[in-house]
Structures are given as C-alpha cells and as structure tokens.
Amino acid sequence: MNKQFLFLIFLVGITASAFAQNSLPAVDLKTLDGQIINTSQIENDGKPIVISFWATWCSPCKRELNNINDVYEDWFDETGVKVIAISIDDARQVYKVGPYIEGVAWEFDVLLDTNSDFKRAMNVNNVPYTILLDGNGNVVYKHNNYAEGDEIELYEKILELVNL
C-alpha cells in the first residue's frame, strides 16, 4: 500500500507540474500608469494572446515588437489576437519604458515586471522571449531570441489556433 501511495503522489506531482507549465501563474504587474494587473486577469474572450518579454536595452526585443506592431492591426482584424509586451526593465531603468513606447506608438498593451517576478515564474532566462496562449489561456508555443521573419512563424501559429 505504501508503494501505491507514493505512486499516486508521483502522478499528482507530474500532473500539477504539467498544468503549471501550460498556464499563466498569478503575478502582479503594473501598467504604464501604475495600476496593478494580476496575470490571472489576462484574457481575450477565447482568442489567442501573445506575451512578449522585452527590455529597453534589448535591440532584438525592440525589433521584434516594432515588426509585430507594423502588422498588429491586420493580425487583430483577422484573428482577434491580443499582444501584451512585458517589460523586464528593473526599477533603475523602468523610467525609459514610457518614453520609448510613446516614440514608437505600439498599439498593444505594455506591462511592467520590474522585479522579474513574472519572468521567473514563466522560466524566462533571457529576452526576447515570446509565448503564445490559446483561447483558454494555455501556453501552446514558446520562442526565444529573434531573427527577422520570426513574426511570420508566430502569425502562422496564431492562424492555426483560430482555424481549429
């Protein structure tokens, strides 16, 4: 009976681990105007969500998000996808985020993770790091780094989700 109990605990642990890796943890982030948003509140009425971790000091991050911004209106019109850019700039550098966003006029939401709590919770080691969630909030795709054209692959993954 002891072995059965241990096996049951093992199965529960594996299941919980798999679940934790496929959904968003609940972490408090801030909007650019200082309001607190918990990541458990992130939703998009059953449509996909792209979460992109970035920083003002990261050139590939800015290139990726600028390229996504160039096509975001079309993406949204065709799929309803929501893009959320999560800045990991720390407390000493976060003052650069707002002016940068104003300068590039991103159309999507930007949240601040100044303590890197969400970054750690999502096991993000370096940026840019992009995550795609399905309409139920499950992680279905992850991508680290950026090369020109990666946004095309991301959009193909988004299309797969909305055409199921």
Biggest sheet details? 7 strands, mixed
Task: Enter the CATH topology name.
Answer: Glutaredoxin
The CATH architecture would be 3-Layer(aba) Sandwich
Structural class: alpha/beta
Strand count: 7
Radius of gyration: 17 Å
- Order of the strands making up the biggest sheet: 2-1-5-4-3-6-7
Distance between the termini: 44 Å
Write down the CATH class.
Alpha Beta
Element order: H for helix, E for strand: HEEEHEHEHEEH
Subunit arrangement of the protein: single chain
3D shape: globular
Mean pLDDT over the residues: 89
Number of helices: 5
| Assigned CATH superfamily | Glutaredoxin
Short description:
By secondary structure, the protein is an alpha/beta fold.
Keywords for this structure?
Glutaredoxin, 164 residues, 5 helices, alpha/beta, single chain, 7-stranded mixed β-sheet, 7 strands
Your description of this structure?
This protein is α/β, with parallel strands linked by helices. It has one domain (25-162): Glutaredoxin (3-Layer(aba) Sandwich), CATH 3.40.30.10. It has helices spanning 2-21, 59-79, 97-104, 117-121, 150-162; strands at residues 28-31, 36-38, 49-54, 82-87, 109-112, 129-133, 139-144. A 7-stranded mixed sheet has the order 2-1-5-4-3-6-7. α2 runs parallel beside α5 (150-162). Mean pLDDT is 89; it is low at 5-21.
Outline the secondary-structure elements:
Elements (H helix, E strand, L loop, with lengths): L1 H20 L6 E4 L4 E3 L10 E6 L4 H21 L2 E6 L9 H8 L4 E4 L4 H5 L7 E5 L5 E6 L5 H13 L2
Parallel strand pairs: 3-4, 4-5
Antiparallel strand pairs: 1-2, 1-5, 3-6, 6-7
Helix pairs in contact: 2-5
